[in-house]
Amino acid sequence: MSFYISSLIKxxxxxxxxxMWINDQPLPGLGVELIAFTHDEEYWNRLRxxxxxxxxxxxxxxxxxxxxxxxxxxxxxxxxxxxxxDKVFSLAKEYEVKHVVFHYTQIGFDENSIKDAQQxxxxxxxxxxxxxxxxxxxxxxENIAFPKGKLxxxxxxxxxxxxxxxSKALSIxxxxxxxxxxxxxxxxxxxxxxxVQAYHFHNNDGVRDQHxxxxxxxxxxxxxxxxxxxxxxxxxxxxxxxxxxxxxxxELLREIEYLSSNI
Length: 263
Prior knowledge:
Blueprint: E1 3-6, H1 15-23, E2 30-35, H2 41-51, E3 58-61, H3 76-94, E4 100-103, H4 114-134, E5 139-142, H5 156-165, E6 170-174, H6 175-180, H7 185-192, E7 196-201, H8 221-231, E8 236-239, H9 249-261
Parallel strand pairs: 1-2, 1-8, 2-3, 3-4, 4-5, 5-6, 6-7, 7-8
């Protein structure tokens, strides 16, 4: 397994600084999760330029600005979805990126649209898994925090059904989202642990998707690490914090050390 730090903590404007700092750390297996957005050509070129310099492990968070994964085939939005992921998967293969995180939606739904959206989503997930397979890239499907005032595309049980119905589907469990969604993580792991290749670690108050440090919130990470060791001891861990955490580089390393000493 490897530890990764998401470049989200520095924001898009400081991706290079964080990536190069991680690259220079002497810790074996420490890597960076870069945000592979496709909506901005300048950002895409910056991403490619920093990849040229990195020797550390790399993962990607797939695109979600301007990309909606429930877009219907035959629409320009669907074409953009497929073209974006084809571009990201191609780059991931070129630079031997460990995995690409996939958001199955960015929106909420109502009772009149949910079933149709789920059907489209399942078709698109199969299409994207096959596309990832063509590029020899691992696409990991993330559990999404439930939207406020709308129906989630998949509830906790339905998220599990993705893996029950598709033997090629792979998972990244976002622990912060699982905490908000009241997901029974052990129940999920007891069924699908072999599919879980990575985790996003961050914390919150159980209500808001705050992306705090693991030390700042109501989720008990020390208790969860016993489940990690039992079910998924080889899965990667990604610290996915937002800039407001204001953690220093030394504090980030101490959190990596804390996790490493408890798994």
